[in-house]
Amino acid sequence: MTVDIPNTQQLHQWHNDFMALNSARLDSARSLLSSRQRLVLDALPLLFHLNHQQLPGYVDRDTPCGISHFQASTEQHQALQTLARGVQIPRGLNDQQILGVYLMGSLGSMAQSRSSDLDVWLCHHENLPEEQRQRLQQKCEKIERWAASQHVELHCFLMNLSDFRQGQSRSADGEDCGSSQHLLLLDEFYRSALWLAGAKPSWWLVPQQAERNAGPYWEQLLDQHLVHADQWLHFGDIHTIPAAEFIGAGLWQLNKGLSNPYKALLKLLLTRHYASQYPNIRPLCWDLKQRVHQGQTDVESCDAYLLMLQRVITQLEQEGNQQRVQLARRAFYYKARLPLSDLPNTQRNSWRARALSDLCRQWQWQAGDLIELDQRNSWSPVKVYKERNALISEMLSSYRFLAGFSQKHAPKIHIRPADMRLLGNRLYAAFDAKPGKIININPGIRQSLEQEKLTLRLSPRQVWQLIPGSWNKDPQDTEQILKQSPSLMELLYFAQYNGLLMPHTHIALYPQHNPLSQYELKELLQIVRNEVPQKADNHSLVHPPQPRYWRLFVNVGCDPQHHLSRRGMQKLSNRDDALGYSAARENLILTLDLLTVNSWGEWTIERFDGADAMLLCLQHLLGFLSLARANLTSGHLAGDEDNDHSPLSHQWGWPEISSHCHCASRASSINLRVRQLLQDVMQHFIEQPRSPYLIEASEHYYLLHSSRAGIQLHKAANSLELLKLLQQPQDFYAPCRLDDHALLHSPLRLIYQHARAGIWQLFYWRKGNKFFFYLLDDKGALLHQQWHDDEGIRRLVPIIRFLRQLDQRWLAQQGGNSNRSQARTLLLFEIRQQPHSFELQLIRRKLPPINELSSSFDLSAVVDEQHQTTLYCNNQEFSVWQFGDQLYHAVAEEVQNLRQQHGNYPCYLSDLTLSGHNQQVIDHLRAKQRIEKLLNQALLSLPPTPSSGNGD
């Protein structure tokens, strides 16, 4: 569309109107500032125009300075004399490196308050050398520190307009939005910027009809000498908002919402409104320019926040959700920071108070509504929590809308991956909801949530409830409950994280006869109050979260011997193991609460309860083995292993762990056991990560072992189930490590103490009329068999013969590829109980001579890949294809015929081959046992014949 070029008079009028609005905004801004704050505002242009050592911000004489077309106002002259009496402004500075100075944000608007910060855009020459730019940056930082001394929060942003027009920016750090947005930021600048000094925005002189062709339009103004190029700055054109910006802008506003949710909500809703207009977006700055070009220069008609509110409310009303409309209205009311029910006399007649009062009347808010809103700092934590949820829900809903919009319309997004990761992870840390995570319920809603009194109530369902103030004893009144959890520690840390706890906060317990004693609560609070929330730095946030330290709490509000404590009794025992106390083998560790504080500043409580609590907690902690190994590899060690009070496990590279127990019964011994177990298990898996670790608790056994999927936990309800776990073949040498309190009087402890790599060890033990046999193989796996005592020794010979034959064949098959050149070592031990003691001892026994290991005939088997068994008796083949289900019966008959006495006494395999080059001796012995069982059953089914009964 062709736009007529305005005449000089029209351009002059537009310029004058924008300057009139600018002047009115500055006057409005100054009216709300204290004398110190006004000094900062008035001095800002001078501090950049001059480079004088008596002025704040001086770096050296080579620092860039000088603002083009600068003419000091009366207020600025006065500010200069206040700061440095006698310093004059020189005329005609030759070196003018600063093109323009602007303020952006809420100053001079409905949203300004006494605590509003000043965001300064400092536009410098585009060809300024990097060394000069760094000096100018130092000057800005010094001016920021000086402003802070005057109680002004000032942020200076150096602007190279050439880079800015191309969308280049810094990282999303501090107050800089980084690459998250560009034209959305420019839209905000145009509608809210205050000109302080230097050249003015060329955008002022571009009529709305020419917005989409602003470049050619401006060139015509220059060609016709209607404007002078050096008096205007070109920040860029806004003919629409690109879809690529919306996801980054949403991320940025959500991050701002962590501390200022009301302001962030309004900007998110505006961004969402823009996205809903796509592709025919009308930027809000167009509305402002249209009003100014029509001659409206009063601050109320052209207020950026009122324009934004009008757009947002119109959109929400069209969508028909009144709750969202009311939330947006509350957000605007709080952003204005004008408590209409209690306004100071100095503000009652201001345009801001008048405009806000008019809005509240339109919204039909009553005096009681205003009082409730203005008493926000007295809201109960429960009400604050509900408001937080409403705000977060609406902000996340808007962000999800923007994310869906970007996915549909923007294959390439306008935000650097590093900024995306940083902003996204910061949001994840703040908003990700998961069981046990402590969240901030007060993101700038109320100044403080400190409570004089809190109540901890244990409900009939054994769930703890956190109640601000006193409990009104009405179980149906759930509105008084702030939070509830089966974990008391979660509630205490929730209270600490959210600032409810003060040094003098009184905490009442209900009911009074409570499993949690006042002594235990006092000890726990002492620990909890030492925990202070820490904000994660950007370096941590661009990496996955890692635990920084752990706090472990044992039996909180739980007496493991309550059935005795209630009668004033406690069981005493020489067996002081908290996992197997006394002859009854009681497990005294009933609950564990684990606080994890990670590198993103998140606090999470994991709760473990029941008989498996300790083991489940160990498994969880061992899931961070890779972190410990990485710290060890990098040489990052801490802690003093000779100090009993040093944090557990830190000396191995693990995050610090501390454990605490203050329950009514045996707290010290329980805590000591937990500490020792944590230390032993963690040290074991650092030093021997492949070897399983066995723990005995009560009458159960638990085996922790490492796998590709992480640390696995297997539970055995009795000794037989344990033996099944221990006989699993290993791919490498990994003998089981026994906890110091596990299997104290079992032969297994003695056997594993003698584990050695690369050899086979046989153990036998007589107990009563039973004979127990164990094989510990070259990789640490254990096979167990049990026989009647009268046949025990006799059955050892065939096993030894089988092992010898197996080893000889494997050695021959490997040839020169084997790591060993001779037969594997085979040792035999007898286990005996020492006289007058429960202790066991090992006695080395000689193996039978070679000639005693021979048999009258050769009996071997081969198991193929289909698990079909083929038997060979003196080289005669017996296959399932030949004999079907009569296979074992046929072999039994052949065996009986070969025997001199034709007896049907047991027979044993002398060799066995498994498919797939399997050389696991445990697998071979188990298959041997299965085949021999079937064969001997077949032998017994044959008619009885005379026999010597010595076996083959």
UniProtKB/TrEMBL annotation:
The keyword Lyase applies. It comes from the Bacteria. It is an enzyme of class 4 (lyase). Its EC number is 4.6.1.1. The keyword Cell inner membrane does not apply. Residues 11-204 form the Adenylate cyclase class-I N-terminal domain. GO terms for molecular function: adenylate cyclase activity. Keywords: Lyase. This is Class I adenylate cyclase. It comes from Bacterioplanoides pacificum. The lineage of its organism: Bacteria, Pseudomonadati, Pseudomonadota, Gammaproteobacteria, Oceanospirillales.
